[in-house]
Amino acid sequence: MLMMSRQRYMHFDTDQPSPVVLVADPDDEVRAGLRESLASIGVQVRGYRRGADLLRGIESQAACVITELKLEDMTGIELLSQLQARGLDLPVILLASDGDVETAVEAMQAGALDFIEKCNYERLLLWHVGRLTDRGALGPVALQA
Amino acid sequence: MKEKPATVFVVDDDEAVRTSLRLLLKSVGLPVETFESATTFLEQYDGNRAGCLVLDIRMPGMSGLDLQLALNERHSILPIVFITGHGDVPMAVEAMQAGAVDFIQKPFRDQDLIDRINRGLTKDGEMREALRARDDIRVRISELTPREREVLDLVTAGKANKVIAGDLNVSQRTVEIHRARVMEKMNANSLAHLVRMVIEAQRED
Fold first, then answer.
1. Is A141 touching B (CB cutoff 8 A)?
2. Which end of chain A, N or C, is surrounded by fewer C-beta atoms within 10 Å?
3. ipTM of the complex
4. How would you classify residue B52: left for phi > 0, otherwise alpha for psi between -120 and 50, otherwise beta?
């Protein structure tokens, strides 16, 4: 699912400390896939199964939060609201294995950076995270291939 | 000059939709104007007019998303509620990222659309009010004398009267007088208030 040509993204300065992205997803494979995928642009992933676990482990220097829409203990939109309620305005990207237009609009109105259906998420994710962490300068179109 | 009331602008290539929306919005007392294409709207819309744009996303020629981008380029603040027959998630997200206030799929309940339009109108009113307030601050700044303007810049940069007196090579008493006049002309009730006004005046969006 997350196969990609790695060398295309190896343009970052390896002397800098790795930026950190927080991931909430109940699916072990998705977290592992994201870890591998984001490692290719030099970004470290902290994975959590549940929204509450992510909130407990929160660190304000994280570059962004990537969360599945349907977590076991809350929705990704609720997680976004809880982060905002704590005054943490981290960019939040929602990943939906099962999303519809209504939910996408709700998420965007709540302040999500993006709402991505899992069927086509990889290039958008790499673009966002690359941009937020100054790693990987390729634009969304260039990643489309 | 009397301003026209906040108006719902409907852009849809389907005449039946335009007619039914006109009737629906009139029935709840909202002024409405309809346009059969994005190009027509763009040619006729005066950016200073308040309201809310109800926009069909898929139209032949210039699409709803194209119109949204064209309005963004003109720094329009008119809130947009998109209507779509067959929306998909990436399209909805794109429209929202480009600043749409809402995105509704057909078929919808009339009341649902009216609620969303009303939220758009409220937002439009708030934004126009904020812009008016900003213009007002800019006018007040422009009415300061050059020396008062210098004092304003130094005061809001956090400099003490004594330091400003040294910078401008005048007495501290003179600075105090200029400073008091700046506060009065700007209608500022504290230094923090004055700083907020200067920041607001410098905003570009």
1. no
2. C
3. 0.79
4. beta
